[in-house]
Amino acid sequence: xxxxxxxxxxxxxxxxxxxxxxxxxxxxxxxxxxxxxxxxxxxxxxxxxxxxxxxxxxxxxxxxxxxxxxxxxxxxxxxxxxxxxxxxxxxxxxxxxxxxxxxxxxxxxxxxxxxxxxxxxxxxxxxxxxxxxxxxxxxxxxxxxxxxxxxxxxxxxxxxxxxxxxxxxxxxxxxxxxxxxxxxxxxxxxxxxxxxxxxxxxxxxxxxxxxxxxxxxxxxxxxxxxxxxxxxxxxxxxxxxxxxxxxxxxxxxxxxxxxxxxxxxxxxxxxxxxxxxxxxxxxxxxxxxxxxxxxxxxxxxxxxxxxxxxxxxxxxxxxxxxxxxxxxxxxxxxxxxxxxxxxxxxxxxxxxxxxxxxxxxxxxxxxxxxxxxxxxxxxxxxxxxxxxxxxxxxxxx
Length: 397
Ligand code: PMP
Hints:
Pathway: Cofactor biosynthesis; biotin biosynthesis. By secondary structure, this protein is of the alpha/beta class. It has helices spanning about 5-20, 60-70, 85-100, 110-120, 135-145, 155-170, 190-200, 225, 255-265, 265-270, 275-290, 295-310, 330-345, 375-390, 390-395, and strands at about 35-40, 40-45, 100-105, 125-130, 145-150, 175-180, 205-210, 235-240, 250-255, 325-330, 345-350, 350, 360-365. The protein folds into 2 domains: about 20-50 and about 295-390, Aspartate Aminotransferase, domain 1 (Alpha-Beta Complex), CATH 3.90.1150.10; about 60-290, Aspartate Aminotransferase, domain 2, CATH 3.40.640.10.
């Protein structure tokens, strides 16, 4: 055992403890349900990404069981023997759903972003990335070695200044990349303006619909589709791990873009294809997403009621306008303490701390589900009111 390494790792962990940013695992039972069980206690689950409740839907589970009869694993990467008819037909269905020429499936959203950005961009290119984009986008940009202008959150002037400079500098190709729904704030990207700017400066635009897929659009296609912008966005990606309730991810766009990625994207080429059970579940979840108008309506209504309830009480819900409703607390220790306070009272609201969010903006990130019971949500709203006005407010807010 290397003593040098042991000492280094322990020092780093102690530092995280001191900052209040140490992470540990907390097993739960029935995570797929709007009320889950942890340590034998029932908790209203306000921390999952299972927005439509599909992770626990009998059809989606049944589809996995049926598909698993064909085999447990996919046996190789897509380009070797992992390209079965079920994944091929899923990609055709995805392109049809998104209204794009083509689509492809990835192992996960993280793998998609890291692989796509590093495949598209090189040293001579410049990428423009919203300050609050997901970590997988940041990592993909790092891996690409392209020059990066991280523009202030949703700040179009700051973005445009960077675009102008890049054109003056004669950068080879420009790419703007943004989350459609920001994962820790629940606000949305100004997609209409981003399309305008990308067209003005001859850039491409990639949109991460991780939290928009299944939730927005007439057939759950995402925020871009709900704004009628799909045709003007070069590449859309999204995950099956959130509203779809499964696992894996997709990219959708022009046929040339997808064919390029099949040839160049290392996180697509050098990894085993998703197993049949997962592909089977995604097919079933897609059926529900397409026909999910009522689920979406229920989710959006519940989120609105919840957000407005918290805002009336004076909580800082950041820019939330979606099913993701944070309350910004500030310090990491305070956010963790508030999360424990909630858990003691039957609510699971996980504290989100740096580096996931910027220093000093630790928060509880609530996320709503279409399948939450209204009574449970009302109870949570009432409890948060008590927390706000009772002596606890001094400790947490
Ligand atoms: N993009 C965004 C905006 C996300 O929030 C996430 C998941 N947290 C991902 C990508 C990664 O997706 P996955 O969980 O499927 O790896």
